[in-house]
Amino acid sequence: MSAIRMDGKMVSAKVRGSILDEVNRLKERGVRPGLAVIIVGEDPASQVYVRNKERACEECGFYSEKYALPEETTQEQLLGLIDELNRNPRIDGILCQLPVPKHISEQAVIDAIDPSKDVDAFHPVNVGKIMVGNFDFLPCTPAGVMQLLDEYNIDPKGKNCVVIGRSNIVGKPMAMLLLHRHGTVTICHSRTQNLKEVCAQADILVAAVGKVDFVTADMVKEGATVIDVGMNRKNGKLCGDVCFDEVNEKAAYLTPVPGGVGPMTITMLMKNTLKAAKLHAGIED
Ligand SMILES: Nc1nc(=O)c2c([nH]1)NC[C@@H]1CN(c3ccc(C(=O)N[C@@H](CCC(=O)O)C(=O)O)cc3)C=[N+]21
């Protein structure tokens, strides 16, 4: 038996449709969400993601601005642009695509963004709010995973949830959101002993490693839900962290790459930008 494919593209289309409906209602009140996306340098993968974000803005009826800066941009110049965007009333959300070139401090960039425009939810103020469970913005990739779980009626409550990866962008906030929903959460990483055994206990396994074919069938419990957050290239082709074909025979639910978590991530960015626009306009949910 093969797993049920969790269709992030389909769920995304649905959510973006409802965002567009709300944007059309907001229009009557003179509110239009605006997102600024900054990309520094020429990383080809980043270019694809940024293009997908622009397309999502169009689908949702947002105003958007894109700043493609050359690799040589100084930190001072980048922080100058962020400062301008912080003060620009047409802009509700600011996203600076990571990674930034090595001569720029990633943390300095994150810290410079006005927390009320931090639609990635990477600023320490927003990270802290997530930790205590009282937040405006959810981190996009983990929020996308939670929405996918909800769509397929998979409730983390009381379940063994194992997250592989401890990055600030995915692993750590993913663990926190699963914990908020009453999962029993384990975070695994490169130093974890008995990684395979720990993963094989998971009812919900989230792979955010960044390594092709990292999750093999022997690491998956029969009937588990397996969420693949990986975005890797193998012979030029996009693939995740999970050996899809073999895990497909063991898991009950599985996300594909592409078409799983990726589109959901961008859709959650749209949700956060809409939320930011409402907060800036003083509109309560
Ligand atoms: N400040 C910041 N915020 C981010 O959210 C952020 C970032 N930096 N840096 C890079 C990662 C990666 N990321 C993706 C978003 C969408 C897809 C996506 O749309 N994937 C499609 C296909 C993409 C393709 O065809 O290559 C899919 O999985 O179906 C992938 C990756 C956001 N990130």
Overview of the structural elements:
The protein is an alpha/beta fold and 285 residues long. It folds into 2 domains: 30-114, Rossmann fold; 140-262, Rossmann fold. Helix content is 42%, strand content 16%. Strands 1-11-8-7-5-6 form a 6-stranded parallel sheet. A 3-stranded parallel sheet has the order 3-2-4, with helices on both faces. The termini are far apart. 41% of the residues are buried. The structure holds 5,10-Methenyltetrahydrofolate. 5,10-Methenyltetrahydrofolate (GUE) binds at residues 48-49, 52, 95-98, 120, 140, 231, 238, 257-259, 262-263, 265-266. Pathway: One-carbon metabolism; tetrahydrofolate interconversion. Its EC number is 1.5.1.5, 3.5.4.9. One of its GO terms (molecular function) is methenyltetrahydrofolate cyclohydrolase activity. Pfam families: THF_DHG_CYH, THF_DHG_CYH_C.
